[in-house]
Amino acid sequence: MAEKRNESRGGEDELPRFIPLLPPEPSPLSNGFRLSLLLTHLDDF
């Protein structure tokens, strides 16, 4: 049982490490995408 707990803890530690690395790149891209969408909508008007 104790060993299983250690394994689950390790998995949790690995996930947070990936999360901080991922968000920084996608957020600027998503922001740019939103801006482009807004611009296209303005062009339609």
Characterization of this structure:
With about 45 residues, the protein is mainly α. The protein contains two helices and no strands. It has helices at about 1-20, 25-45. It is rod-shaped, with a radius of gyration of 20 Å. About 0% of the residues are buried. The model has no long low-confidence stretch (mean pLDDT about 60).
List its traits.
45 residues, mainly alpha, rod-shaped
Instruction: Determine the mean pLDDT.
Output: 60
Helical region count?
2
Compute the CA-based radius of gyration: 20 Å
Strand content: under 5%
Helix content: over 70%
Q: So what's the overall shape?
A: rod-shaped
Q: Structural class, judged by helices and strands?
A: mainly alpha
Q: End-to-end span in angstroms? A: 63 Å
Largest sheet, if any? none
Q: How many E strands?
A: 0
The helix/strand order is HH
Which residues form runs of ≥5 with pLDDT under 50?
Answer: none
Q: Could you give the topology of this structure?
A:
Layout: H1 2-21, H2 26-44
Summarize the structure.
With 45 residues, this protein is an all-alpha fold. It contains 2 helices and no strands.
